[in-house]
Structure formats: C-alpha cells, structure tokens
Amino acid sequence: MSHIIISVPSVYTCKLPSQGWINLALIRQIQYDDLSYIPIALVTWSNGEKQIFRGDDAIALIDSWNSATKLLEQRCNHRQINRRF
Question: Of 8, 43, 59, 64, which shows the fewest CB atoms inside 10 Å?
C-alpha cells in the first residue's frame, strides 16, 4: 500500500502595526529579545531568509505566535485529552 502526502497550506495570520499582515505558518524560527530597550524579533522564514522586527511589530508577532502555538497544542492533544480508558 502506498501513502500519499498532501501538502495543505496553512494560514495563521498576524497583523503588525506598521508592516501589514504576515502568515505565521511561513515562519521556520523566531529568536526574540525583550530585555533590550526596544523589543526585537529575528524571523527565519521557510525559504531561509531572515527578517528583523522591532518595537510594536515584534511584540505583536510574539503575541500572535504564542496564541497560534497554544491553539495548535490544543488541536494536537485532542485525542489524548478525550481518550477513553
């Protein structure tokens, strides 16, 4: 039996105060520094490119990332939470 993998694009949008909308699903990695005077987020996109977000954009990005992560964890844990013994 062969298996077919279908790649379905996901969209997790985030509205940044000064740079418009971005899709969080295209982010490979985020490095975040909130200890500096101005918050900074370094994003590595799925294609390998890097982009720096500062200030309110960095805060909005990290807040949206954390919210999306929590939603995904809830979806992935659905079977374990609702499992019958």
Answer: 8
Q: What are 2-31's pLDDT values in tens digits?
A: 555 555 567 888 999 998 999 998 999 999
Which of 41, 42, 48 is closest to 26 using CA atoms? Answer: 48
Tokens of 10: 């996901």
Domain range list for the chain: 13-78
Mean residue pLDDT of the chain comes to 82
> What's this model's pTM, rounded to 2 decimal places?
0.73
Q: 7: Cβ–Cβ under 8 A, 6 or more apart, which residues?
A: none
Say which residue the tokens 């490979």 belong to.
28
Report the run of H or E that residue 80 belongs to, with start and end: helix 78-81
Proportion of the chain above pLDDT 70, given as a percent = 76
d(CA 4, CA 17): 40
